Amino acid sequence: MRLLIIEDNKQVVMALQRGLRSAYAIDVAYNGQDGLLQAMATSYDVILLDLTLPDMSGEDICRTLRAERRTMPIVIITAATEVVKKVTLLDMGADDFLTKPCSLEEIRARLRAVLRRSSQRLFNTLLVVEDLELDTAARTVTRQGQAIQLRRKEFDLLEYLMLNAGRTVTRPMIIEHVWDMNENLWTNAVDVHIKHLRDRVDKPFGKRLIRTVHGVGYKIETSEAKEAEVSHILN
Questions:
Q1: Closest C-alpha to 50, from 68, 30, 70, 65
Q2: Which of 143, 146, 161, 195 could serve as 220's disulfide partner, Cβ 3.0–4.6 Å?
Q3: What is the mean pLDDT of residues 140-156?
Q4: Alpha-carbon Rg of the chain, whole angstroms?
Q5: Does pLDDT of 54 surpass 80?
Q6: What is the pLDDT of residue 175?
Q7: DSSP states of 170-235 as a string?
Q8: Spatial separation of the C-alpha atoms in residues 156 and 1, rounded to whole Å
Q9: Across all residues in the chain, what is the average pLDDT?
Q10: pLDDT of residue 39
Q11: What is the DSSP string of 106-170?
């Protein structure tokens, strides 16, 4: 999952990065203009937006994104406590809000909640492909009932593949959703992580799920997709 934090307080940003980096690839903008440009240019899974920024308001950012038909969930951080203000935030397109001061536990829970609501695929935190199961909340993976230990990027990569089960995702798509924009990536980073993932998720279990689509990218194969492909060939 890729998260954009738009917040001008660097100490707050550092605290958020420490508290959320285990579950999200995080990009940061310290002012409204940069945040808006990043949000327009990149397909984020969720945005955490401070209402008070030095150059423009969080309200204007939210309204602009909705006017441009950007549908990613937006969680606003605000000092406002009045009911009227909160209603206004929701009416202008915010999916949820947090009232300062707020704990990291609440922030994590709010982000999980808007992600569940934003996609039917995430209504249940359990993703299942064949005999492979991934719990997005507990960040656990099992196959054939056996626990699989994955590093953070391996988990994020597998989660992205499973969210797009049956579809081919390109290397640029994977990088956009799994890695922070400021991370230094070596040329074959995606391929190396795919190999490590296969060593843990595929090889010990006798059936390969992670497939290479030559010249395009990768996908997790599903029985339904395979049957549809065979049917198309036969017909």
A1: 30
A2: 161
A3: 93
A4: 19
A5: yes
A6: 86
A7: EHHHHHHHHS-TTS---TTHHHHHHHHHHHHHTGGGTS--EEEETTTEEEE--HHHHHHHHHHHH-
A8: 7
A9: 85
A10: 93
A11: HHHHHHHHHHHHH-GGGSSSEEEETTEEEETTTTEEEETTEEE---HHHHHHHHHHHHTTTS-EE
- Nearest Cα to Cα of residue 76 among 181, 176, 4, 27: 4
Q: Scan for tokens 């920024």, then name that residue.
A: 53
The two three-digit tokens of residue 178, written as one number: 């799994």
Binned at pLDDT 50, 70 and 90, residue 83 comes out as: low
Q: Say which DSSP state 23 is in.
A: T
Cα–Cα distance, 124 to 75 (Å, whole number)? 20
Do the beta carbons of residue 5 and residue 34 sit within 8 Å?
A: no
Distance CA 67, CA 197 (A): 39
Q: What is the pTM of this model?
A: 0.63
The angle that helices 152-163 and 189-201 make with each other, rounded to 10 degrees, is: 80
Measured distance CA(139)–CA(159) in Å, rounded: 9
At 57, is the secondary structure helix, strand, or coil? coil
Predicted pLDDT at 84 = 57
pLDDT at 79 over 90: no
Q: Largest Cα–Cα distance of the chain, in whole Å?
A: 63
Describe the crossing of helices 171-178 and 152-163 by its angle, rounded to 10 degrees.
120
